[in-house]
Amino acid sequence: MTDILALLTDPAAWAALVTLIVMEVVLGIDNLIFISILSNKLPAHQQQRARRVGIGLALIMRIVLLLGISWIAGLVTPVFDLGISGAPGPHGEPTFETAFSWRDLILIAGGLFLVWKATKEIHHNVSHEETGETLDKTGKVVMSFGSAIAQILALDLVFSIDSILTAVGMTDHVPIMIVAVVVAVGVMLFAADPLANFIHRNPTVVMLALGFLLMIGAVLIADGFGVHVPKGYIYTAMAFSAGVEILNIVARRRREAKKAVRESLH
After folding, report:
1. Distance (Å, rounded) from C-alpha 48 to C-alpha 253?
2. I need a labelling partner for 83 at 20 to 30 A (CA). Which of 110, 174, 251, 257 fits?
3. Do residues 256 and 205 both lie within one domain?
4. Backbone phi, then psi, for 94, in 5-degree steps?
5. Are residues 180 and 80 in the same domain?
6. DSSP 135
């Protein structure tokens, strides 16, 4: 209790908390996009429940990982080394790591899963070929609730480990990390339904979101191989693309409104 009171009166602790909340919210965008796309493939009466269950599982998983912080820290210890060197960089350093930790392997596996899932969804949206999956009356793929939750849980694990390891690098105080995670997940829960509904109402946004997932998957794979891409570049590109798409949506709606007015006059 004394330690918690000391944190409440420490300006540095508050600064760390605000920074962590912002970082956790930004990192949660990836998870939220994936959950939105998957939940939209469920029957309408199950979509909101799937989003809440998926985000709730993300919260539980992150808190459990924080309580096992020493185990998480051990995930960065190399478990094997390929014993080869990558092509030297401009300063003679290897361009990728050959010693892999459990964190690296989890990131690579998660990245490959994201690339596979996004590619599969893009292929279906473009070709509309029969894939053997269940379709509704509109031709939209419908998956089972259990399948959606299993896929959400798998990606929750990857994003949670990446998020917690980033938080560990910013503060040593577990209570600060837990508060930041709870607030960030609360923001995700608040934003989940509006984001999913926006994606559902605007089919072009689905392709943009799948493109984001492809990029995030590639970044996870690169990170697993020791090639660290600054996340600021990734989220700036995502924000710019989203801004352009919003302008396209506004312009399209204005054209449709003008067309409707002209047709009503005739």
Report:
1. 27
2. 110
3. no
4. -70, 145
5. yes
6. B
Residue 199 near residue 40, CB atoms below 8 Å: yes
Strands (E), the chain: 78-81, 99-101
Q: What is the reported pTM?
A: 0.70
Token readout for 264 is 């009503």
Q: How far apart are CA 33 and CA 25, in angstroms?
A: 12
Residue with tokens 């292929």: 123
Residue 119 belongs to a domain: yes
Position with higher pLDDT, 123 vs 136: 123
CB contact at 8 A, 148 and 35: no
Q: pLDDT digits over 134-170, tens only?
A: 555 555 556 788 888 888 888 888 877 777 776 666 6
- Distance in angstroms (rounded) separating the CA atoms of residues 65 and 25: 18
User: Does one domain contain both 220 and 208?
Assistant: yes
SS3 content of the chain, % helix, strand, coil (to 5): 75, 5, 20
User: What range does the domain containing 89 cover?
Assistant: 14-229
The Cα 33–Cα 155 span in angstroms is: 11
Same domain flag for 58 and 108 = yes
Half-sphere exposure of 223 (CA within 13 A, CB side): 26
Within a domain: residue 8?
no
Q: Are residues 48 and 122 in the same domain?
A: yes
Amino acid at 130: E
pLDDT of residue 131: 47
